[in-house]
Structure formats: structure tokens, C-alpha cells
Records
---
Amino acid sequence: MTARIGNGRSRAVTRRKFLKTTGAGVAGATLLGTGACAGFTPSVEGSAGTLVFTHGPDDSGNKTKWIDKFNEEQKGKIVVEYREMPADTGQYFDKMRTEFQAGGGTTDVIGGDVIWPAQFAANGWIMELSEVFTEERQADFLEGPLASGKFEGGIYGVPWYADAGMLWYRRDLLKKSGFDDPPETWDELMEIAAKVQSESGLLYGYVGQGSEYEGGVCNGCEFVWNGGGEILDPNDPTNIIIDSPESLRGLEAEALLVSEGITPLAMATYKETESLTAFKNQDAVFLRNWPYTYAEIGDPATGSTFDPKTVYDQVGVAAIPVSETGSKSFRCLGGWSFLINNFSTKKEQAWEFIQYMTSPEAREFFAINESNLPPEKSFYEDKALLKKQPLLEVAGAAVAATKPRPVHRFYSDMSLKMAEEYNESLKGETEPQDAIVTLQDQLSRIAQTKTG
Amino acid sequence: MGKSFENPWMRIAFYGAMVLFVLMTLFPLYWVFKMSIVTPEELFKTPPSLLPTNLDIAPAPYFFTAYETVFADPDFKAAIVNSIVVAGITTVICLTVGSVCAYALARINFVFRTPIQAFILAISFFPAVAIIAPLFLQFQTFGIIGTYWAMIIPDILFALPLTVFLLLAYFRELPAGLEEAAKVDGANIWQAFFRITIPLSAPGVVTTAILTFIFAWNEFLFANTFALDITTQPATVVIPQFATTYTTDFGAQAAASIVVTLPLVALVLIFQRRIVSGLTAGAVK
Amino acid sequence: MAVATGARARKSAKPKRAGVFSRLKGDFANPERRTAYYMVAPVLLLVLLIGLWPVTYAIYLSFLKILPETAPSFVGLQNYIDMFSDPTFRGAVLNTAVFTVLSVVLEFVFGIGIALALNRGFAGQGSVRAIALVPWAFPTVVSAVMWRLMYQQQGGIMAYIALKLNLIAGPILASEQATLFAAVIVDVWKTTPFVALLLLAGLQVIPADTYEAARVDGANAWQQFSRITLPLLKPAIAVALLFRTLDAWRVYDLFWAMSDRTLESLSTYVFKGVRISQVDFSLGDAAAVFIFLTSLVLAFIFLKGLGTESSGGG
């Protein structure tokens, strides 16, 4: 095979030059052209009038429904774009933080976890709201959820819905075994669970969320608090006081559940899904989970094996047990608030959207359809609403007894350490005593990190 | 064909071992496929059954439900597009600069040839995590975090050794005589490269392109670090996230895995002969 | 003997090599060799910009304390001290080391077996070789997710098998040890084909006559393997070992996706410190430099071993 190049150098040079220049031209044009495409430039803000709202995935479709209603009523003046974020709150947080660090990002309204306001506010990433979120309006709200949005004297978040850890239990099975009331202490729970388990043949006595993630931190903190311990000194946010006999007995109670066989070791891999599935399959006597459980156990479409007509007689809800009889039961405060991105150029529209989402109609809609707990006091006294959503009767007391996780600008680092240690203590890979000492050490280091 | 076994027992053992190997290799693929077509109840059934039961559950067969979820999900489609864009551009850039470099290393005996070869090889040993911190800060300054470039740039770095060495092996296999003849005819080295080497080694170039593409497609670390939302996130980032707030749709996750992997598997199977010779040639030489 | 003398004779017959600089000058004088430099320049430039410069910057950063909203301050080796005292880091090193040793050893054992089988030739070998490539086509993250689904307590086939075989009492993913072994299995599944192919290439270079001669001399299969195959395969083994060890040392995707971020490797430690934590950025960066330096050391050790082998082999 002979190669034909061309006749002589001069022609070849021209051809080469031609190839070179056109090649460069095409490359340049492509790059410039693609520069305009999404993905080659940092995401540009939504066009005028588009408000970007971020939150986790919308399983039931209710949030989308409500937002669509808003868009309709606005008739094009404001269009809210619901941008779905990762389901895992830790990942969602990382994403938001990266966006802020990269220059502000493109979201306007953030449906943020209650543990975020302090962390974002400390860096000046979210807008301080006291101008629009007046003191009078604030007074409508329950203490716990409202406090989660406060930081250094300012208010940064408008509570959307509150979550509180609750103990769900098989009222019918307890009655069958001779127990009229739910347990008040962990010892009582173990006693009841053991009896009911053997008599009714259920697989598990107690399940909760024990995986190494934020939900695991909630569970672990509940054990610590209900043992009588504290993590962050309420008077001094740089002082960690988790190392106490009370905290220890709390974590020991949790480890005991596993070692006594009331709780499967698998709980160390459970997030909300797995634990709720176990309960919905009628495999567990006790379940620690958030209020949305109420809606799901009555809905066969979610895989619940309960008969919707009888489920609310079969299942009761109670306070999280404590270690010492008579001491106060604390539920971990969860839930979500609306935050406004400080870099947003549409802050007025953002506030309008937030007001819409926190209106009484919105509260009612989400309370009934999602069993989301409204963060405002008045709803727990509304008799008509209570009829439509019976959960609110018990929930009112629950939300009043919530305790927030440590409010600190570096909470996410603390959360990582707590998630790890709680998980190891639960599995029995670390002694509760060692876990507490490690946490005291690590959390103190984080709490005292000097910045500025 | 190969030698026959003297001992019939050896033959049985040998083929038995081969069958076992094939089964173990393909089993995960089968299992995850099964997960993508069965109902949620069966997904969590303990003990799990080897063959799917309950396929025809009223009111309609559940077979395609997970796939419908996956294909209806705009995020999934966007992720696939992102994967294609990032892997595609990486491949094009790597091929362009890498082929020229490989040619020089293959054909021209210049002073630093061996050290440069070793240097490029050394990059493949480079721990990618080591540079995410400085790259993050640099990209922050240039404002490209959350764009395709933030992924393409590191991908180029790590794909280059693969591209260069594969092409190097292919170029070396070509007899130098043709290029020599061209040079005698008056062509310079660029012309020899474009007019002779590239066309002749086209199969090698194609294989290299495929392998580079697959390599960039599979990249996860930088995608996870620099792709902020679905406008840029490729499939490798999206699939582990196939979950909803309080539930995890394992069926959909399985279906998404199958959808993303099948084309790659098909590519690999079609081009397997070339891939094998490319990998082995590149590595051994 | 005869060969060596010949080589020695040839060596002494060669003219003494000119110095580097004069050779460089000669290169630039020659148009063809000069073009070579232009041809490799783009690649080298990219590597410098995307690789070397960031690494240098990372090393520089590791001597500073980086905190949000704070000016960086020079802290010398403090970050490294903190890093080594961090129990999470020590756990990560242990996990990564165990993972590396186990997966590389297993991949070799299985890889050699498969390579020998493929080399021997049998009916359907083409299909087997094609099928063997299938795991390699999966993105690591996807295979991690797939295997995670199989390791699940509820409905996971691997969990079921492990339970039946009495290998483990509780859920696999609840135990750090079990998860580590589970990850090794996934890596072996995914990469053995690659190792097998590398070794196969090395096997195919060995002429069949060598085995014939040995068989005539009365050597049995094991002797053939240990006296002929293994020594001649050493270069291929060394190359494969080098690639696999350094790959395993950097493991990230697999641990991250399979354990849902809970199992710690050196790389996940870096990622968490640099991208997730707010106060531990400097620790993460120090760990990144640590990985870089240890990779260099490992590579050096292997290359030294490879070097002596090939020069010793003649």
C-alpha cells in the first residue's frame, strides 16, 4: 500500500495549514457555543420571576401540589421551581454548603433542616429575617421549633413543620398481654417488650434508627437526654458536658436493648425506612419514629400490612421512655424551616412564597395529608382540625417537650462524631463509657475551635 | 484448541471450575436484574428466593414498574446526558493530545523519551484524593465549580496515561516502514502521522477511545466533589442517591443500575477482543 | 555465558554516550526530534497544570491551619501530629491496609488460576473470556450499589447465604469487619478479570517448547508451574501487583457507595475532612499528602523489585 501524500511540499503545507486553522476554528466555535449551554457555565439564576425552592424528594406529591397552586394563583408573576435535593439530610447540607462556598449558588428559598440555621447564619449565608418575621408573628410559634432558627440574637428561619421523636406501640398486643399503659421507663419497656414478643410471636421488641447518619444522632441524643444528661451546656455554647453518669446510663440503656435481644443488631443499619417497614410488616412491638408514621401505617399503598380501619385502635403513640422514673421525657426536635439565601436577588418574592407556605390553609393541608406537625400553637387547639387529624392531640404535648440538638456553627462536625460513636455503642463495638469519653473529647475540640 | 486432559476427573473438575466461575461472575447481574422486576414485598422477603415469584400480581404485572420510574425520572435522563457529555469531551481531548504525544514517544528517539514515558505512567499511580482540596480552591477562584469543566479537567489528567499508553502500543505495532516511505516522498512528521499512522491504526484508536470513554464514564470522586446539582451530575453520582425522603426505592435503584450498565456491558462484549489485546499490550509493554 | 560475553563485548564496543545537554542541543537541531518535543508538550503541560501544581499546593496547604472565616496560619507539622492522633485516621489506615492486602492476594490467586485456564485453551474459552470482562465494565459505584443491595439484611441474597453458612451472626453491614470483607469480595469480583488478563498476556509470551522440554525431562505440573511459569511471569506479576496495590490503596468509590459513607478508608477520610467537615479541612489535606507520599514509596519499592528482576533476568 503506497501512501499518497500530494505532489510536493508546498501543497502539503497549504493543506496542513488549512486543516490546522479549520480545526482550531471548529474547536473554538464549539467551546464558545457550548459555553452557553447549561453545564458549561455555573448555573445561572432562574430567569426573572423564577424562584428556586429546594427541599428533599416529594414522595407523596403533596408539596408539589401545593406549590403548583401557588404558581397558578401568582399567574406568572412568580414561578416557583421546586428543585429536589438528596433525601439524606447530611448530603443535602453538604450540597448547600458547597454552593455557598462556591459563590452563593442559585437557590432563593431553602427548605432547610432545623439544625442548619446556626451553621449557615454564622457564615452570613442566610438572610436575617426580623424585619419581616415580626415579634408578634413569632409569638404564634412553639418555642422549640422557633428557637432552632435563632442565632446570636437574630432570627433566620421560619418553621415549616416540626418533627418530634415518638414512641409508637402495639396497643392491642400490649392489652392482650395485660398491659394497659405504655412504658414510662426503659426498664418497663424491656419487660413489656419481652413478654409481648414471646406471647404474640413478633420478631422485634423495639426498633429505631441506629445507622451512622443524622437520624442515628437523633436517636442517640434522645437516650442521652432521657437518661438525664446534656450535651451542650445551656449557659455556655463552647462547653461540652456530655461526660456524665446520666448520659452514660442513657447510652447503656440503648446498648442493653440490643444485648438483651429486644432490639436486633440490624438496628445499627436502620434508617427511617427500614425501621418503619419492620413496624408496618407487624414485626415490631415498639417503634421510635417521626410523626409521619401516622399517615403511613394507615396507607396500604406504602406497603403497610395494617387494616386502615383498625390500625389507629391497634397502634398507640407515647412519649420516649426515660431512664429514671418520673423524670421529664425529651423528644429530639426535628423538622424543617424556610431559609432565604442571602445571595438571592428575589428576597421579596421569597418572603411572599414563605408566607404562602406558612399560611393557615397550608398548615391544615400538610397536617391532614402528610401528618406534618404545624409549629404554631393555635393549631393544637383547633377542635375541627383535631377531628380531621387525630395525631395532633398527642403531638401537641410531644412538640412542647422537644429538645434541639446542639446549636453551634460547627454542628455538622459534631454530628459526624456523634453519629459514629452512637452507632458503635449501639453495636457493642465500643463500650458506652468509651463512647462518651471520646465524644466529650472530640466535641469539646470542635466546640472550642477558634475562628475569626 | 487446547490440549485434552489425560484424566477424565481432571476434565470434569476443570470444566466445573469454569462453570462456577462464569456463574459467580454473572450472578450479581442476574440478581440485580431480578430485583428490578419484582414487587417491593418480594424485594424484602426473607429468605430471598432465587427465582422471581409473584410476577403476575393483580391488577397488572409489576415487571416494568421500576423501569418506568427510572425512565420517567427527568433526573435520571439528565444524569445520562451529563455522563455522555463529560466522558465524551474527556475522550476527545485525551485522544487529541494523547495521540500526538504517543506518536512522538513511539517513533522519535529523543533525549527525554524514556523519562517522559515513565512520568506519564506514574500519573496512573497518583492518588486522586490528594488534589481535591487544591482543585476545589482553584476552581472556586475561577468560578467553575458546578460546571462540566470541573469534572472534565481532573478526568483528563487521569485518563491520559491510559490513552497515551494504549496508543503507544498500537503505534509501535505498526511497521515503521510505511512512514519511512512517506518521509522519503517528502512528507514531514506531522503528515506522516495524520495521513498514515492514524488511518492505519484506526481500530486501535477506536479501542482506545472506547476504553477512555468507559474510564471517564466510571469516574466518581470528582463528579461527587464538583457536580452540585442535576444539571451536571453524571449517572455515577445519581444512582446511589435513588432514594426518597423516608423510603428507599430499591427496585428503582436496581433498575437504574441495570440501565446504566447494560450499554457498557454490551460495548465491552462487542469489542472484547480488541479490548483484551489493548489492555494486555498496553500493560505489558 | 556466551550471551553475557557477547553483551559485554557489545557494550564495550559502543561509543561513549554524549552528555545530556549536548544531546539536547542535537535534538533541537534535528527538525524531526524537535517536533517530538512539541508533540509531547500539550500532555506534559496538562499534567503539570492539573496534577503537579495542585499536589504542590496541597503539600503547602498541609502546613497551614485552614478554618472558615479565618486567615490561614502556619502550624508546621501540627496537622500531621493531629492526624496521627485521630483514632478515625488510624482506623482508616488499618481498613485500607487490610483491604489492600486481602484483595490483591485474592485477585492474584484467582487471577493466576483463570489465566492458566485460558492459556491452556478449552472449548468455549472465547465466551468465558468475554464473560470475565463483564464485571470490569461496571462503574465501581454501580457495582458497589448492586452488591450493597445483595448484602442487605432484608431480602439480600448474600446476607442469606452468609447466615446459612453461619459466617455471621448479625447483619453484614452492621459490622465494620464484615463490611470490610464484603468490600474485598466486591473488589475481587470486579478486578480479578483484569489481573487475569494481564497475567494471561505474560503467559502467552512463554514459548510452549519450554514446557515440552520440561515435560520430556520428567517435570510434573507443579514443577512446571513453579520452576518455569512463575519465574518467567515475574515481570507481568510485578506490573499487575503494582497497579493493583496502588489502586487498592486509593480505594474510595467502593467504600463510599457500599457502606453508605460509614466504612472509612484513607481516601474517604480525606474527602470527609476536605469536603464535608468544617473544622477538619487541614487534617484531610494532611492525609491527602500522606496518601501521595506512601503511594510514591510503594511505587518505588515495586519498581525497584521490578528493576532488579528484569536486569537479573538478562
Note: Residues 95 and 173 of chain B are 18 Å apart (CA to CA).
---
Amino acid sequence: MNTAPAIGQPTTTPAGHWRNYFRFLARVAWESFDGNWTFYVWMTVLTAVALVGANAWAVQVRDGLALTHMNDHVSWGLYIANFTFLVGLAAGGVMMVIPAYLYHDEEMHHVVIIGELLAIAAIVMCLMFVVADLGRPDRFWHLLPGLGRFNFPVSMLTWDVIVLNVYLLLNLHICGYLLYMRFLGRPANPRWYVPFVFVSIVWAISIHTVTAFLYCGLGGRPFWNTALLAPRFLASAFVSGPAFIIVAIHVIRRVVGGDFASGPVRTLVNIMRVTILINLLMVVSEVFTEFYTGGAHTSSARYLYFGLHGHNALVPWIWTSLAMTVAAAALLLRPGVTGHPVLLISACALAFAGIWIEKGMGLIVPGFVPSTLHEMVEYQPSLIEWKITAGIWAVGLMIYTLALKVAMNVFPPAGAQTPLGVPAASWPRSPVSVADGR
Amino acid sequence: MACALLTIGAGLAWAVGRELAAARSGDAPASGPMVAGTNHPVIIGRPAGPPTVLAGFTDHQGDPVQVTCGACHTTTQPNLAIRSGEQLEQFHQGLHYAHGSLSCLSCHNAEDYDTLRLADGSPVEFGDVMQLCGQCHGPQLRDYERGLHGGMTGYWDLTRGPRSRHNCITCHDPHAPAYPLVHPVFPPRDRVAAGVHP
Amino acid sequence: METRPDLPEPRRGLSRRGLLKGFGATLGLAAFAKAIAPLTEWAPTVSLDEFLQKHYLELSPVDLEIILRRLERETREQYGTDVTIADHRAPAGVKFGYALNLSICNGCRRCAEACHLENNHDRPSHQSYIRVFEMQKGSLDLEKGNVHYDHPVPQPDKFYLPVQCQQCERPPCVEVCPVEATWKEPDGIVVVDYNWCIGCRYCQAACPYHARRFNWTKPQIPATEINPDQSYLSNRIRPQGTMEKCHFCLHRTRNGRLPACLEACPTGARVFGNLLDPDSEIRQVLAHKRVFVLKEELGLRPQFFYFFDV
């Protein structure tokens, strides 16, 4: 007995939309659990890691953050370091959107969704890291405006809460709308996603600027209290984002075969060539300002780069990070690097790792060493911190894998020989071509 | 009229009662500045009188005999040659003396050893020793009177409760007034990662 | 349900693939439940009333009374002793100020110990709101300061600098708190609602004076050592995962008494009082001594003043 309109026909009733939407969600769920054996192994490993992290977090909530190695001197550590880095990754995901929409790069148009889905996964990870870092996650509702007390606009953390959640909603809407329209077999109405895309460009800049403002507004922490912090954040975000996307594209190529998205990869490499140099320039600027001026305000920089009063746990990390970034820059600037996947992926991995270290050990931890009363207390994460961090990364990778899998089926890559899991033809195909569908 | 008299009488009785209560606790404390009816007293500890020393023998009940300064010093001549505690041979041995270049008789009154003497020779009771200290240590006495020296316990708000204060020799031994070295309470045990030294 | 022509026919019955998937999903769910089982041990420690409790500034007097009694009950259950938790409001016409005489402080740390005992601090960490720095004479450079000295004091070439919350006029901790769990009261004390704080520790990052402390774990105090005269905003035993800080012993000072650190100081280096009263001792300090504050260039206007005798 069928009273619902056939899928593919314009639905005029809200009831029709609800029914279709649930079918869409069911389809997504079904796709999530179906794939080849590589997919199953990958997802099982990630699930195992995620479960280890979940257990570690539950133990941490029960016994307190004393299980971490954070203390009253270094009160933020691995969690906030990863949070900061992932906000950058989410912002960097939008680097594909700018060429696609502002510069009408047609090839990029097809694969923009890869960056937007990365933004979703990264923001979800950010929110998880914040919750993992809270001393009282059960009091999360205190943050909700109306229910709790929201110290907006004075507290930069409230700005961060707003911009991150809106950015998540923006990307969820854009990606969800496009996928849903594809599911219905209808052309996407530009009015429903293009304005949001343009907003997301500006918003991506804002999320990382606001996150930087969390740190650079604190007068008591001279290591952070620099106007260059927000530009540095953006520069490093626009290195790490494209780096991750390039690697993701290569993974997709491995799965679907062919020369998927070669044009966009070239564009991204060109972007990275500029942003990685800007990033290095900013590092040089910071280093000069600190070490030429000297004085007590530079003790954090001295601790980071050269050690202070016998404490030098971070020195190998920062120099490794610098070496990695320089090596990545050298590799990326090499002409024709896009034709050498091994070199390209190495460059991206080096850039990604270098920026991760720079944001984490190179920014968050030195802000606390020495403390505001110039006490030297060093920090190395504890096992439970590593477990929770790994678990959250596993969840993020799971979300990204599933999202990519669904999206690649909806927008099968041109020249795909082996679709991921379910045959691409199983999704309804609209009368218009893929390119026009966006 | 009768009510007014009653109130005044009650107020006086209360004030006297507080004085007596203060007198009962500790060694003869005197009340400090007190605005009638509104402020609580600032109780400044005072030495009760001349210090006593052990005579070296016990009385018929077996208690050690303590004598005041005058017991011996009214029958002996003051020895002006002795200028510091180390030079004492017959009595007061072991007196640790380190008060600059002052001699014994800079403060002790040779005419009446049960009192002290000010710089102009006039006697001052042991209970008023702060006046003597303050002659030379004027800045400290001035700070003390402003509440900035010597500490206090009790109430910052004297409309709600009294306050107790020390006198000079509560903390400073008059023969060696420099504040002694003390061993501090042990340092904070910070939460730091194992193996990472603070 | 109408099926679409280009969709594969849904398989009838349960395939091996489907069975494996179902088995895997069930296993996964069971593993997840086991993984987060420690939360079931933690959940009973937070009552529904505590979870729903409103912010201190939004509580009616009746609400507050109920909460205070509940907190007393919880202290009895968790720590094994009876306490009284009161609410002490800021008195009118009072602005607290604190001064410290660096010529007299001898670094004995009795103030830190008094704070530890008065405020029901965690015993194993010997926590205190006060940290005393042994400083090199002739320099106020905290980088040369040492908190962990353990020798007779005072050393002849050193002076001693106790640091605690400065109760700034423009407190950065208050500005950055996302949930307004910390605020400056009318009498100048910056307080924390321990039942509202979410434990994000942004205030700890923002404070330039290392004044904020976090309860990394549940405070451990033997029942016999608990100070039973407690106040909601000050020395009641704080829950795990919340911030705390020096509150000028407001359960004493709002009743007119001196703070515990001042009373414990054997040298009389500390001066406390009402900045709005021109005859108070603290005003005498400001009038007659050369006072300075730490990190004045940050513009936070601390209400904790340091001075030397000359």
C-alpha cells in the first residue's frame, strides 16, 4: 500500500519530506556498515581505539583530572593542544571552497565536499576535546544561553562556542542539503547552499581568529600576548588543512582508482607553497622579536627553543617541528612534485606533523612554562591523556571515513573504476550532470 | 529621665565589666582606645611588672623562690664598669646580650631596679616598656600605633569585636631583640608529573 | 513501500553478511557499555539537585537554605563530620584591602599553613592559596625567586614575598569565565560558585598571579581536621573538578574578623582592613608607606599592596 509519492517526484507535503529524510538517513546508516574488507578492518581498528579512549575518559571523569599530568602551573595540555590544532584543520578545510566559489575553479567544485566534510569531522573532534578537558562535563548546560549563564560578549570562550557550533551547522547544512538533494534525485537549488558557502568562507577565518583571541588577549601570558598570534594560526591552518586533504585525496584514489582530482591537488599544492612560506616567515618574526628584545617576557621562548634553568623537554620537539616544516616547504617548492605521490605525501605528512607539534608543544605548553610567577614546572602528557586523544582522533577519522564514503557514492569521482562499497548506480541519478548539480 | 539614667548606668556597668573581664585574662592587660558604647577594645598585652629570677633555693613548701630585681639590687652598688651581659660574673650568667652598643644601665634604672629609665633618667614602669623602646625605635612605635607593626588577632572591624595586640617584648627579647631564625613550614608539594622535577 | 527500479532488490531473509554485521554491532555496543562503565560509579556522586542547581546569584533565600542543608548533609556523608555552611553577604560600605610588609616577612610560611587549615584544603598536596617566594635582595625578578626553600629563615641576603589572589579591580579571571562562575563582589572579593564552575580552567590561564587553584581530584581531609565553620562562597569543601582561590577568608572578614593568614603571621607583616574607612590600618599603609603592586603594568589594579619599612 503506497501513499507516499515516489522518490524523485517533487514532494509538496511536509510529511513527504519527513518520510524521505528518514529514508535518506537509513540509507546513510546502511552505507556506513557496508564495504569491502579494508573498510571493515579500518573501521574495526578505529572502533577499538575509540573504545579505549571512551574508557579512559570515563575513568578520568570518575577519578578526576589528577590522572592527567596537568597541574596548577601547566593547566592546559594535550587536549587543548589538539583542540587548537583541529580548529585550524577545520578552518583549512575551507581552502578548497575559495578557489571553487570565488575563482570558479570547475574541477575543484566537484571535490569541495571533501574539505567541508573534513570541517565537520574536525569540529566534532574539537567539541570532544573540549568536553574531555572539562573538570565537570556534567555541567555543560551551564554554557547554554538562556538555561545557564553565558558570559557573552566579554569571554572569548563564549565567542568560540558560538562560532564553532555555527560553523558545524553551516557545513552540516551545506553537505547534508547537497547529499539529500542527490538522494532525492533533484537538482540542488543554489539559493539553499551558495549563500551558506560564502558565509562559511568568512566563518572559517573567524573560527581560527576567535580561537587565537582566546590566547592572545591574556596579558598575564606574554608568550601568547602577541598580535601575530591570529595570523600565525591562520597561516598554519592553511598549511595543515590542504595537507590533510591532499593525503585524503590520495587515499580516495587508492580506493576508487584513477587520477581523481589531479587539478584540485595542483591548486592545493600551489596554495600550500605560499602558506607554508608565510608560516615560516611568521615563525622567524616571532623568534626575532623574542630573542632580540630579551627580558622576562621572553622566558617562555627561551625555554621552548633553548631550555631554561636546566629544563629543556620541549627543545627537541620545536626544532624537529621547524625541520619538518622546512623540509616540507623544500619538497613542495620542487617543481613537478604533484607528479610524485610519494614525495607529495611525504611533504604533506611532514607539514601536518610539523604544524601539529608547533601548535601543541610549540604554543600551548610554553605559554605555561615558566608560570606567571616564573616557576618552572614541565609537562608531559600521561597515558590517559594519550588514550583519550587517540580515541577522539579515531572517532573523527571514523566520521570522516563514513562521510567520504557516502559522498563518494553520491558524487562518484570522474573516472572511478571501483566504487567504494555499494555500486554508485544504486543512488538515484538526477537528469542533470554532476557538475550542474552543484 | 529615669530611662536615660538606667541606660547610662547599664552602659557603664557593661564597660566596667569588659575592663574586668580583660583584666582577668592574661597578665594585667590594659584596654586601649575605646569609644564608649560603639567600639570594642584593643587589648594590648603588657608585662605585669618587673621580671623575676630564680633565687636558687626553694621555700618551706618546696617551690623555687623567685625574687624581683630589688631584692638584691637595693643592697648592692651598681657597677658602672659592666657594659654588657658577657661581663656579668656573679649573677645573670648566660644572659644572651646583643643590643648594639647599649649598656645595661641604658635601660635599667640604677636608682630603682624595679623600674626602667628613659633617656632623661626618669623612671618608667616595666609595664610601660613600649615607651622606652620607642625612644630609639620611633619609626617602629609609630607604625605600631598605626596598626602596621606587631600584628594582631581578633577583629579588623572594632564595631563588631575586640582585638588583641602584642607589646614590643612579646616578640623581641629586650636583651637580644633581633628576630631569631626559624625553620619554615615545609614547602608546597606541587602536583607535577612523576620524574619531572618542579 | 515502493522500491525504485534501479535500486538492487532488497535481500529477503538474513544473509551471512547481515548476520555478521548484526553480531558486530551488538558486540560493539556491548563493548561501548563496558568501556564507559566507570561513569556509573561517578554518577551517584552527583545528585540530581546538584545537577539542576542554579547560579548563586539567582538563588532565592529559600533555595539557598535548602542547598546549604543539602551540602552539609553531603559533607557528612562524604567526609564523616558535621559542619555548618552559612552564607556571608558583603557588608555595605566596605572595600577590602590587604598589605604586606616585605621588611618584616621572614618567610616562615605560617600564613600558608593557616590558610591550609582554615580553608579545608586537600591534605596530600598541602595545598594553600599562598605561595611564599624567597627573593634575591635588590631585585624583584620572580625568575630568581624560589618557592621550595627549606632552610632556616630569614637568610641575610634574601627577602620573602608571599603571593596570593590580588582581588584585582579588573580581574581577568572574571572576564574570561564562560559561565560567570566567578565574579567580583561589592566588597572587592573575587569569589567562585563551586557548584556552577564547569572546570574549563580558562581563569587559571588568564590569572597573572597564579592565584587560582583547581581541584584535580576530590579533596582528601581527615574528619578530625575539617574546619566546621564553613561558608558557601569560601571554605566549604570544594567538589572535584572545580576552581577555587583565596577569598580573603570572607567567612571571617565579612563578620569583622581578621583573615587566618594575618592572625598566624608571627612577625606582624600583614595588614588588612576596609579601604573605604580613612582611619583603617590599611589606609595608614597607603598614606604613609611607599607601596607597590605586582605587575602593575597589566592595568588590573590589584588590591594587595606590598611595602618596605623605609
Note: The interface with chain B takes residues 66, 69, 71-73, 313, 375-380, 382 of chain A (CB under 8 Å).
